[in-house]
Amino acid sequence: MYIIEKPASAETKVKNSRFLAEVFPVKTPEEAKDAWRFRKDTYDNGGHIVYAFTVGDQQNISGCSDDGEPSGTAGRPVLAVLTGSGLTNAMITVARWFGGTKLGTGGLVHAYGDAAKAALANASFIELVPMTEICVTLPYNTYNTFISKTAILGLQINSEEFATDITLRASLKSELLPELEKIIQELGNGKITLTVT
């Protein structure tokens, strides 16, 4: 799976109808709906702003809308392009300004799909690396060794709290969690606790 590194847009024309496609990151279906509403309020195109989105580590949740175009001619083709790209946590909107000539159902499918592809061609992606949020509580005398041993795992410490013990909130690539558990077992002698948050 991939996520968007740089949002992008592209404009295409088919028989005088103008299509503006935009691709950008979203994290939830609600965020996608808000982005669509923003475009509905912003663009004075007198009509259709089609959208498709997919979110989750494996494109778990997706949705689309034809926004008044004939059923299946707009949102579904855009969603097919989006899911086929391997992107997740992403949305494509396509605004259409009618040019006076009806495109027919087949023409609409191609026009919306091609507009979505054009926007994706201008975007840049990076690989999605699933991360796990963790909380580690450890005694002071193990802190320095823990930090040096976990540095090779790329442990990203988000916060440290120094009280009776030290509590670290951190992020780690999910695939490296077993390695971290092994380091904690070897180093902690039962005195270091790990909680996945």
Tags for this model:
Ribosomal Protein S5, domain 2, four-stranded antiparallel sheet, alpha+beta, 2 domains, 197 residues, Alpha-Beta Plaits
Question: Would you kindly provide a written description of the structure presented here, covering whatever features stand out?
Answer:
This protein is of the alpha+beta class. It has two domains: 2-127, Ribosomal Protein S5, domain 2 (2-Layer Sandwich); 131-196, Alpha-Beta Plaits (2-Layer Sandwich), CATH 3.30.70. It is built from five helices and eleven strands; from the N terminus they run βββαββαβαββαββαβ. Strands 2-3-6-4-5 form a five-stranded antiparallel sheet, with helices on both faces. It has a four-stranded antiparallel sheet with strand order 9-10-8-11, covered by helices on one side. A two-stranded antiparallel sheet has the order 1-7. Helix 4 (143-151) packs antiparallel against helix 5. The longest helix has 19 residues, at 104-122. The protein is elongated and about 75 Å long.
What is the level-2 CATH architecture name of the largest domain? 2-Layer Sandwich
How many H/I helical runs?
Answer: 5
Helix content range of the residues, please?
A: 25-40%
CATH class of the largest domain: Alpha Beta
Mean of residue pLDDT values: 94
Low-confidence stretches: none
The CATH homologous superfamily name of the largest domain equals: Impact, N-terminal domain
Quaternary structure of the protein = single chain
| The CATH topology of the largest domain | Ribosomal Protein S5, domain 2
The main pleated sheet reads as:
5 strands, antiparallel
Helix-strand category: alpha+beta
Shape: elongated
Beta-strand level of the residues, as a percent range? Answer: 35-45%
The helix/strand order is EEEHEEHEHEEHEEHE
User: How far is the first residue's CA from the last residue's CA?
Assistant: 23 Å
Q: Give the tally of β-strands.
A: 11
Number of domains: 2
